[in-house]
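S.,

Sequence below, as promised.
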Amino acid sequence: MRSTFYIAALVAATTGAFINIRDEIPSTAPASAYFPTPPDATGKSQPIFPAGPPGGLNDSVVPSDIPDAPRNITLANKFAAASCSGPVTSSPSSYWMAQMDHTGDARGYAPFINDYYTFPVWRNVLDYGALNDGSGDQAAAIQSAFNTDGRGGNRYSSGVVTAEPAHVFIPGGTYTLNTQLDLRIGTIIMGDPQDPPILKAAAGFSGDTLINGYDSHDGPNKLIAAAGQPETSFLTALRNVIIE
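The prediction came back faster than expected:
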């Protein structure tokens, strides 16, 4: 109790001393008279912080009391310096992703395939024999682009499809199909956004759907025996393609 009394008395004496000092400054004095500080880069004087405990010299100073410092730039110049030009309309003649080098060191690759860093992640269906002039049946050629593992095997029966992703590009044009296409796990099918391709069912088309979204086979181990289960069909996408 005695210690508490001594501390309270010391605080009261200290606060009283501060009040006496502040009373010596005229009430009409500017805020800077309490604690002069140089202006900072924003044009306002720096904040004035209390010199003692609450109730000390500067407890009544608020930011709005701080006067403006001289400015060397006008508002007009400030806004002019911050202005920028508007968006520029571009009209590219080809799709940028299709123009990339997908065979060099900067190509995409599958990091989880041991010792096979040349696995073809990017595929163009024209490179697999597909024709985009509306003639014949292009289902087999397009399906080959979906299935190949790039080394004579088939992603459909490899059992490691999740480690073998494929980005299949379909250039503009019309591709006639006599049978349905089957997506594979980890496969993105993307048409040219500037000239969306048309996948068109032939007059004698055989099948219930033009594109089957389920990959019904998960490899030789058949982790889930039933075909077409959601647990074994994922990581697929189809965009920029017109289906007729």
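The CA atoms of residues 41 and 197 lie 58 Å apart.

Coffee later?
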